[in-house]
Amino acid sequence: MERVLVLNGPNLGRLGVREPEIYGSASMADLQESARAWGSALDLTVDVRQTDDESELVGWLHEAVDARAHVVLNPAAFTHYSYAVRDAAAQVTTSGLLLVEVHLSNPAAREAFRSHSVVGAVATGTIAGFGFDSYRLALEALAARLRG
Ligand code: DQA
To answer: Which of 21, 76, 106, 145 is the most buried (most CB within 10 A)?
Structure first.
């Protein structure tokens, strides 16, 4: 079974509490449960993690390369300025693995600073604006690409 790391950046551990009108009322634990279930229906082994720490996120991206795991990545605020996360994400896709950038909200419809992603150019593709369904759609897109 193909392995997928579903990696989440800063403040996403506060899902359910943080700005629920933007991010919804469900928690990271709920996302973990849903993503695992979506993964198993798609024959993917899904490992969902969250960190507020840039170096930990970079380390997990290195781990994905070494373990030959595909990635669904919500870099959260790192999306907009972290060249370290971008360079680590680039190692995933240049090593022939898939990386889907996801966002719960649609950053393009929000404050101007959110309209640019430094990660997008090195991702296989991006899905934004569908809440938890952004992750479901990302896993489906990965599974379809792996089958195809
Ligand atoms: C986010 C959008 C980012 O702009 C923001 O910093 C986040 C969450 C999203 O999932 O909508 O923390 O990545």
So the answer is: 76
